[in-house]
Write a structure and sequence with these properties.
By secondary structure, the protein is an alpha/beta fold. The strands form 5 sheets. The protein has a 23-stranded mixed sheet, covered by helices on one side. An 11-stranded parallel sheet has the order 10-12-14-16-18-20-22-24-26-28-30, with no helix packed on it. The protein has 6 helices and 46 strands. α1 packs antiparallel against α2. The longest helix has 56 residues. Among the domains are: 181 residues, Leucine-rich repeat, LRR (right-handed beta-alpha superhelix) (Alpha-Beta Horseshoe), CATH 3.80.10.10; 232 residues, Alpha-Beta Horseshoe (Leucine-rich repeat, LRR (right-handed beta-alpha superhelix)), CATH 3.80.10.10. The N terminus and C terminus are likely disordered.
């Protein structure tokens, strides 16, 4: 190759190299430009989100609540913010008292371009939701619950419409319910709408809502004050969840009301004022899982057979209505049923024996209390192998308690009070390791308490009162560390009160009244004072408390479990009319109230109508939560302990019909008592005239021969304490003697002076 060719070749290679370099530089510059442009766009977007959020913060009465919302931090580090990439996609602030006006939320937050979810639950939002929201197109979930927002149902729908992609709107616990105003059409695209716990009053609102359902799957209007009848729901093919409970809806439910809601899985109409028969055509809702009609005035025979087609039904609550007739055997065909509550109705006849034939693996809760069921308890209940709670109270059942119930290993509640059951408590119940509540009051049970129950270490409430049980009170009860209620009154137990009961650290209620117990009151009962673990004890069952201080012949007083029972139906208890109770009130065995603190102890001790002897232990004064102390009709003696005056929560004190003597301690005047009875003892001295003592009639003090003062006759010298009389008499005598000696000396001095003066004059 000659030199020219080499030169040309070299030149071509150089030019090619320079071309490649040029292309490389151009590509590099283009990439840098694109990266700069992307960075600029990102920075612009981030700056926009920051600007919106800081503007919202500055609109608050107290901006310091969102202290890290500032330009020092990246927007994705702001409190409550979640980002996708570099954009704010979600904002969740709960429980901060922002006190923001909804207009500020609409202006600064709802307009965030990439916002998909916003939750401002419990942030004290105010203002009206009627202001048109400047809502981003991407917002899908909006939670404004538990605030102070106002507006109408129409305003709620308008808000949802302005947020075109919104699927879930929760505005519960606010003040929605202003005047009915549906002036313009809205297109409701929501899937979920929660308006519960608001101020909606007219059924025109729900009528309008029902016409706009379209895509809605979840609608909650519970806990409002909606009046009138329920309208027919015609546009509900998508609806799966409907809650109208706790309103003031009335009238009968007409055929066809729910027949179009073929996909409905949850229907709650409880706590209204519906009347007539059960909702017709309910069997058309073949996808129902939960049906609650409780706390209404439905009547007639419930068409249990119509539910057979609803194969998915798991929860059926018909409690507190007036349904009557037999419980159909077809109930056994509901193979998915987990809860059956027909309490407080008028069902009668036998409990269907095939009840658990097919649903053995599902049924967990069976509430048949407060009805008129007769016959024996079917052994077939042992097939309900998953049964957790069984309540057959206040019926007319007879026979014995089936031993087979001991095979229900998951059973937690065995409640059968007020029936005609007889025989012994089955020893097989000792196999129920999960048992918490054993309530068998007001039957004719005999024999002793089975010792095997010591194995039921989760027992929380034992109530066996008003039976014919015998033997001694087992000392092993002291090993039940979780025991809160022990009610064994009105039986025939003998022997002494076990000192081991003081080992029940969590015991709050102890009632052993109306037995044949003897011996002394164990001071060890106070061992648990101040040691109760407050946060761990929750019995959580309602009760009624009977008091009748005026009728000493009626012993069926005290606490009675009351879950699923009408107050009026208490008159069905055989002894209610006979006892003529003067005080009946409802309560709940939960750990709330003034008695519970770091020094918590028993609050209820009733040992009345026994044969107890000896003194009241002063240790009881350490039980600072004690509210009731009833020791009447025993053989207790000695002076009243002055230390009891320190029981600041004591409300009921009955020490009548014993042989107490001495004075009423002045410290008792500090007690805030509503019931006091010290009658029929051997007390003496003046009645304290301070505190609650001045409010009681003479009945509280009569038949104490030495007592005096209001409301009894006034005290005089003969009724004053003996130790005071000699002291006063001696003092008066000494004072009188001194006076006469002084007078004699003065007379003698005058005589001497007179004699001297006379001699001087002579």
């Amino acid at each position: 190759m000659d030199m020219n060719q080499k030169r040309k070749t070299t030149t071509s290679i150089g030019e090619m190299t320079r071309g490649v370099q040029c292309i490389t530089v151009t590509y590099t510059l283009t990439c840098c430009f694109l990266l700069d442009l992307l960075f600029f766009c990102m920075a612009s977007a981030m700056f926009g989100d920051v600007d919106h959020l800081i503007s919202f913060k500055n609109s608050l009465p107290n901006p310091n609540l969102l202290s890290n919302w500032n330009r020092i931090h990246g927007v994705c580090e702001f409190q409550g913010v979640t980002c996708k990439g570099s954009h704010v996609s979600s904002l969740t602030i709960r429980g901060l008292p922002l006190e923001a006006d909804f207009n500020s939320v609409s202006t600064h937050i709802l307009s965030l371009e990439n916002l998909e979810a916003l939750s401002l639950h419990s942030t004290d939002l105010t203002g009206s939701i009627s202001a048109l929201a400047n809502c981003t197109m991407r917002l899908k979930e909006l939670d404004l619950s538990n605030n102070n927002l106002q507006g109408s149902v129409y305003d709620t729908a308008s808000l949802a419409t302005s947020c075109h992609s919104l699927q879930s709107l929760n505005i519960s616990n606010n003040y929605i319910g202003q005047a009915f105003n549906h002036s313009a059409p809205v297109l409701l695209q929501l899937r979920m709408l929660d308006l519960s716990n608001n101020k909606i009053t007219t059924n025109k609102d729900i009528q309008w809502l029902f016409s706009k359902l379209r895509l809605l799957k979840y609608l909650d209007l519970s806990n409002n004050t909606i009046k009138g009848t329920i309208p027919e729901i015609t546009n509900c093919t998508s609806l799966q969840y409907l809650d109208l409970s706790s309103n003031q809806l009335t009238g009968t439910i007409l055929a066809g009301t729910f027949s179009s809601c073929l996909n409905l899985s949850y229907l709650n109409l409880s706590s209204n004022h519906f009347t007539g028969m059960a909702p017709p055509d309910i069997e058309a809702c073949t996808n129902l899982v939960t049906l609650s009609l409780s706390n209404n005035n439905f009547s007639g025979k419930f068409p249990m057979w119509s539910l057979v087609a609803i194969s998915r039904l798991q929860f059926l609550d018909l409690g507190f209505n007036n349904f009557n007739g037999n419980l159909s055997k077809s109930i056994s065909n509901l193979t998915s049923l987990e809860l059956l509550d027909i309490s407080a109705n008028r069902f009668s006849g036998p409990i269907p024996r095939p009840l658990c034939t097919y649903s053995a693996s599902r049924l967990k809760v069976l509430y048949l209390q407060d009805n008129y069921f007769t016959g024996s308890i079917p052994n077939s209940l042992c097939n309900c192998t998953n049964l957790v709670s069984l309540d057959l109270s206040l019926n007319l059942l007879s026979g014995s308690i089936p031993n087979s119930l001991g095979s229900l290993s998951n059973l937690r509640d065995l409640i059968m009070w007020q029936n005609n059951l007889h025989g012994e408590i089955p020893a097989e119940l000792s196999f129920l390791k999960s048992l918490k509540n054993l309530l068998l009051d007001f039957n004719n049970l005999t024999g002793a308490i089975p010792d095997g129950l010591v194995n039921c270490t989760n027992l929380n409430w034992i109530s066996l009162k008003s039976n014919r049980l015998t033997g001694s009170i087992p000392i092993w009860i002291g090993k039940l560390e979780k025991l809160v209620m022990l009610l064994l009154g009105n039986n025939s137990f003998i022997g002494s009160i076990p000192s081991e009961l003081g080992d029940c650290r969590d015991l709050l209620y102890l009632s052993l009244h109306s037995n044949q117990l003897n011996g002394s009151i164990p001071p060890s009962l106070a061992k648990q004072a101040g040691k109760i673990v407050v946060d761990q004890i929750v019995v959580g069952r309602p009760y009624v408390d009977f008091h009748n201080p005026e009728n000493s012949q009626c012993h069926d007083t005290g606490i009675l479990e009351f879950d699923g029972i009408r107050m009026d139906d208490l008159m069905r208890l055989p002894n209610i009319q006979y006892c003529n109770f003067t005080t009946i009130y409802k309560g709940a065995t939960s750990r709330t109230g003034q008695y519970y603190g770091n020094d918590t102890s028993m609050i209820f001790i009733d040992l009345s109508y026994n044969q107890l002897e000896g003194y009241i232990p002063t240790e009881i004064s350490t039980m600072q939560s004690l509210a009731l102390l009833n020791l009447k009709h025993n053989r207790l003696l000695g002076p009243l302990p002055q230390e009891l005056g320190g029981l600041i929560h004591l409300n009921v004190l009955d020490l009548s019909h014993n042989t107490f003597e001495g004075n009423i301690p002045s410290s008792y005047s500090a007690l805030s008592l509503s019931i006091l009875d010290l009658s029929n003892n051997q007390l003496s001295g003046p009645i304290p005239e301070l505190g609650s003592f001045i409010t009681f009639s003479k009945d509280a003090f009569e038949n104490n021969s030495g007592l005096c003062g209001l409301p009894l006759p006034p005290c005089n010298d003969t009724t004053m304490p003996k130790e005071d009389v000699p002291q006063q008499s001696s003092t008066n005598h000494e004072s009188s003697l001194g006076w006469w000696i002084a007078l004699g000396l003065l007379f003698f001095i005058f005589l001497i002076i007179g004699f001297i003066v006379g001699q001087f004059l002579l």
